[in-house]
Amino acid sequence: MLAIAPTATVLLVLALVEAVSNQRLLFASLASSAFLIYLDPGHSVNQARTLVLAQLGAALIGMLTFLAFGPGYASAGVAMVSAIVLMIVLDAVHPPAVATALSFGLKAGDASNLVLFCLALGITVVLLGLQRLTQYLLVRSLRGPAGDAGRSG
Known about the structure:
Elements: H1 4-20, H2 28-39, H3 48-69, H4 73-89, H5 96-107, H6 111-143
């Protein structure tokens, strides 16, 4: 059951990408983000702040290195190292963002890809919110209608 929501979200993101662009690999790291969110929702790596700062920062870094060095290993290497340093400095470490930096560093091409990536990232943040809401509702339903009122302290 837990795999349904992230799978649906990733498929929605891929459909969005397919409708507007041919750069599917730029969004592969968001599939890993969706998996991590459902694997361990309470971990600091999977917080909305961490997800957004790391993924967006990595995409921007990747695009800037692409513009500075062109497509290739130099751009990808600088993007990867810079993204890791940025995540550490901001205390927003989200491992899939390293793949985002590499993807944009190797093949950013068009600035519209960054806009599209931001939309896909927004969908992933919505996934995070839905996961948290589901978790809250599940815990609440397991407590029953009386909640904690029946317990004596």
